[in-house]
Amino acid sequence: MKLKPIYILLALVIVGAFVFFNNYNNIQTQDEKVAASWAEVLNQYKRRADLVPNLVNTVKGYAEHEKTVLTEVTEARAKVGSIQINAEQLSDPTIFAKFQQAQSELSTALSHLIAVSENYPKLQADNLFQDLMSQLEGTENRITVARGRYIETVQAFNTYIRKLPTKWVADMLGQQPKQQFTVDNEKQISDAPAVSFGQ
Asked: pTM score, two decimals?
C-alpha cells in the first residue's frame, strides 16, 4: 500500500510543529530560569547595598578623619543604585559591563573601608560594627553563590539556544545569548606571578 503525498506532507507538518513547540517551550523554561537566577543575584547585591549606609555610619563615629574612604564607599553605593538591569537586558553586553563595573567599584571601596577599620581597635570591638561585618561577610558569600548559580543557568541557556534545531527556533524568536560574569582583572590573573626569594 502506497502512502499518498498528502499524508506524508501532513506527517511532516505535524512533526515540524511538535519540534517547534517543544523547542519554544524549552527556550521559555530556560529563559525563566535565567531570569530567576538573575533576580537572586540582584537580591543579594541589594542586601549588600542596604548594609553599606549602616556600616559607613558606624565607622564614621570612630574614624572621622577617614573622609576619603567614607566618601568613596558612599559614591560607589550611589553608582550601584543608579544602574538598573533586568533579565531582558542580560543580552546587552554594554549594560551588563556597566553593572558589573559598578559592583566591582563597590567591592573595592568596601575592602578599603575594612582595611581602614583595622586601624581602630575600639571600632573593631564595637558590637554593631561586628554584627554589620558579619552580615556583610554573609552577604558576600551569598553573592558568590548567587553568581555561581546564575553562571550555571546562563551556560545551560546559551548552550541550549545554540544547538540545532533549537537555534532555528531561537533565531525566529530573536533570542540572544545572555551575558556571563567575567573576572575584572582577567589579563592580570592570566599572567604568571613573579616569585622572587632575593633581598
From this structure: 0.69
Q: How far is Cα of residue 55 from the mean position of the Cα atoms in its chain?
A: 23
pLDDT < 70 regions, the chain: 1-3, 63-65, 182-199
Q: Considering the domain boundaries, does residue 24 fall inside one?
A: yes
CB atoms within 10 A of CB 163: 10
Q: What letter would DSSP give residue 83? A: -
* Domain contains 181: no
Give residue 21's domain range. 5-175
What sign results for the dihedral spanned by CA atoms 117, 123, 124, 127? negative
Query: In CATH, what number is assigned to the domain containing residue 141?
Result: 1.20.1440.20
The answer to whether the beta carbons of residues 44 and 153 sit under 8 Å apart is no
Alpha carbon distance 39, 79 (integer Å) = 19
195 lies in a domain?
Answer: no
**Closest C-alpha to 73, from 47, 44, 49, 98:** 49
